[in-house]
Structure formats: C-alpha cells, structure tokens
Amino acid sequence: NTNNVLDALSQGGLSEEPVQQQIEAAESGGGATWNIVPSAGKKIKKSKKKVQGRRKSAASCSRGTDNDDDEVGDDQSGQGGRAERQREHPFIVTEPGEIARGKKNGLDYLFHLYEQCAEFLSQVQNIAKERGEKCPTKVTNQVFRHAKKAGATYINKPKMRHYVHCYALHCLDEDISNAIRKSFKERGENVGAWRQACFEPLLALAGRQGWDIDGIFSSHPGLSIWYVPTVLRKLCHAQCSNLAVVPKSVSSFAGATTSHSY
Amino acid sequence: NTNNVLDALSQGGLSEEPVQQQIEAAESGGGATWNIVPSAGKKIKKSKKKVQGRRKSAASCSRGTDNDDDEVGDDQSGQGGRAERQREHPFIVTEPGEIARGKKNGLDYLFHLYEQCAEFLSQVQNIAKERGEKCPTKVTNQVFRHAKKAGATYINKPKMRHYVHCYALHCLDEDISNAIRKSFKERGENVGAWRQACFEPLLALAGRQGWDIDGIFSSHPGLSIWYVPTVLRKLCHAQCSNLAVVPKSVSSFAGATTSHSY
DNA sequence: AGAAGGACCAGTGGTCCGTA
DNA sequence: AGAAGGACCAGTGGTCCGTA
C-alpha cells in the first residue's frame, strides 16, 4: 500500500505535501524510485481559480461508493501559506535503468508519467461508467484535471504532449529507443536534441505501415489513449507525399524530409 | 447526375438558390422527392460572419484534385440582395412512404437528412485523409459547416441533435418505428409527442443489451457517427440504476422511469 | 542557453431561448 | 400552441511564450 507512494516525492523534500491515495492507485506498482521534486518553494499563488462550477444536474443518480471521486484533493493551495509547488526538475537523457542524479529527472521517469496518465484515465473512465456519463477514450483535459486533483501536480498537458512521440517510439520499438538514449547520452546531447531524434525512427516505422500513423497509435494499447501529435502527423503526411513541407516547429529538419539522413 | 438534385428545393420555389454539386454527392441516390423549402424569403441578414479565418499553415502539401473542397459555396449570402433562406417547414408525423402535403415536411425526409449528414461526413473524412489532417469519426461542427458551405442550408446542428434518438429507433427497429409513426399519425399527435414516444422502445431495446447505449450506437454503422444524446444516456442510466431521476427536459416522463408504461 | 508549464485561443459539443 | 435554428457558453485540444 505504501511502497512506492513516495515516488513523486523522494529527493528534494516537500514532504508536507499531501500524498494522495489516487497517486498510489495510479502508480504502476513497479519498484523504482526517481528524483522528481523541484527546488523548495518560494512563490505564493494568488488567483486560486475556484471555477470548475456547475455540478451536473441529477448527479444523485449514482449510488453507493462513487459520489465524490472527482472531488479529491482540493489541497495544494497554500496549505500553511508557505511551500508552493515548484517546477519539476528538467529531464536529462538517461539510459534505460539509469537514475538521474542531482536536480534532474531521467527518461524512465518520463515514460512512467505516461503510464500514470493511463491509470488516471482508467479511473476517470470508471467514474464515468458508474455515473452513466460520457466516457473518454483518450487522455483529455478532464484526465489532467483529475490527475492534478488527485495530487499528481507534476503531470500537466504541455509536458505530456511535448514528449508523446518519444513515448511512442519507446512503445513501438524499445530497442531503437534504448539505443538512441544511450547514444545521445554518450554524446552529451540535451533533452531537446534527443526528443528531435525520436522522430526519425518513428517515421521510418510509419513508412513501413503505409504512413498510417493514426492506425499505428490506435493499434497499440498504451499508445491508443494519446492523441497523435500534430507535428508527427504532418511529418508522416509530408513524407507520404514526398514533399519537403516541414512545419516551422521542426524546421531543424527542413530540407531533409525526402530521403536523406535527418 | 441531376435526378434528385432538387430534393431540397422541390415545392416552395426559391429556385434561384444555387444548387451545389456537393448536395448531389450527399444525396443517397434514391428517387423520392420531398417538399422541403420554406416560405418565400423576406428577411435580410446583416452580420454575414466572415470569420472562419486562419487557413492552416502548410496547406499546400496536398496535391492535385483536392485543394479547395472546404471552400465550396460562399454564395447563399444575399445573392441578389433579395431572397434570404427561411426556416424549413415544420415536421409532421407521416407514415413510411407518405409525402407531407402543404408547408410541412415528413419523417422520411427527416431520416434522409441523417443519411445526407453521413455522406457529408464521408466527404470531410476524404478531404482530411488527403490532407493528412485529423479525421473525424462523428458528425462534428466541421461536418455541419461543410454541409452548409456545400449548400445544404437546411441541415443544422440543433435540428439533427434533437431527433437523433428517433433516427436511432428507425435504424435499430424499423418495424417498431413504423408502427409508432402510423399510430401517432392516426391519433393526430404532433411531432413533439411522436419524438417523445421514440424513447420508450429504445430504452426497452437498450435494456435487452445491458443498458449499453454507447455500445448500441457504435455497433450500428449508420448510428455510430452520431453522438449519443445526453437525455437518452441519462434515461438508460436511470433505468439501469432503477432510480426515478429524470432530467428536466423529459419531465413529461417523470415518475414513470421505473417499471410502468410511459 | 534549455526547459517546464500557466494560461491563452480558436474552434467544439451542447442546447437554450428569442423568433416566426 | 408547437417548432426551427441562431447564437451563446462552458469546457476542449493545442501550444505559445512569459518564467525560472
């Protein structure tokens, strides 16, 4: 029950941060412990956004065990008026199994976040089914909100979307993914460079499947819950059309979309 | 090519309204002709809403035949400054095969609109695939927009959503659907009463399938492209839970959600 | 400089309610 | 009164850019 509860809070203190049961549920059950927690807080948030309002009418129709579920948490707003949660430590390129040292997080931890999100989605789906509400099939805003309420404040949409294609490569060809991690670690590359490098083997893989990136995502159970990133979709389409049209945000690839290395 | 192009424009004039090729494509190919067109125009619209802007970047990546597709139409705004399209004639309860007379539309026509939407969705999907964009699986706002641009100005979201469950019953058990139409026509009931009556047999049907209304919709090809109406979902859940919680908008059913007639 | 994520924005699902 | 649908609204997908 309490084994790796502290995954999210191991190095770096902030132990007064309430640890939610929901995080335990979202933990996959492995044994690893990563260093995750950011530098000590010093900022005081002000807005506190009490929006979210408008409880759905007729919410009383479910009975028994499920009547709160979405209401967990509500804490992380200035408990003692002091420690406000800070940014996560930045990622560094680590090899499989390697724990990042210092104020850094490793890539095993990054991929672990995707699995936590899957578990949070599963919780949201269960709640929705109990209540007879529309049931999401993807990691939506609602899931991110649920994760946050459940205390997993280190999970957020921009981060997860940013690295989806890296996780995709990890799912679809772990050997290649691992090889790239090792090579980029050796070369001392930063996370951004590693992230960019994950596109190429994914594209090669997609090419072997008729460039059907949606099909590739939806066929893999761990991947099917993630939206296909726009950039990846565009790269696949550009490759398929053999046109060197590359969106601005991957312009470091520009001119190399046809057959050369990139 | 030109056989039932005028389905949408048969009785009621307004022949100066441009008939779009896209409508032809969206016609299912049957032979029936309904009376659809509203009373002659007299209102002048003012806003004209030229929004929609922001063409997606890198739109040039598709080649050949598809480069406009979303741009069709653009006409129906005060062509000669005169006839502005008016409301559709209201629906009346008709038996299968019966043509509504006077300034009315019949239920075969209503169901035909659902099939036109399916065809418009299919067109939107083809365009999206050609362009390598995200491909909708349901009748979304984008599809309604496409339908409107293609000249099918009589299709709109509130109307289609309003009668989805009636179409569902028509798809899932045409015999029962037809029987209700005949009976309600005989009794001289209005469309609202007929619409309400469509819930009950649908619920009975859902009960036989474990109240899995999402599963029922997604298993039927013509139905899977429609969102399950919120009211129907709530009714199924209430029945499943044997609780008499009925949303306000179907309160004419109130007190009858457990076992009695309704 | 490289990176994390709050917060914004255009377009969505949903449907109310002013209209005819 | 009964009904059609413009138009609004809360919450979405997507990601920029002020922040650290």
TrEMBL record, chains A, B:
Keyword flag RNA-binding: no
The family this protein is said to belong to: Belongs to the FLO/LFY family.
Stretches assigned to the Floricaula/leafy DNA-binding C-terminal domain: 79-242
Bias kind Basic residues: ranges: 42-57
Region (Disordered): 25-91
Subcellular location: Nucleus
GO BP annotations listed: regulation of DNA-templated transcription
Function noted in UniProt: Probable transcription factor.
Source organism superkingdom: Eukaryota
Example of a GO cellular component annotation carried by this entry: nucleus
Main location: nucleus
Keyword Kinase: no
Whole-protein coverage range: 153 to 414 of 414
One annotated GO molecular function: DNA binding
Record protein name field: Floricaula/leafy-like transcription factor
Keywords tagged on the record: Activator, Developmental protein, DNA-binding, Nucleus, Transcription, Transcription regulation
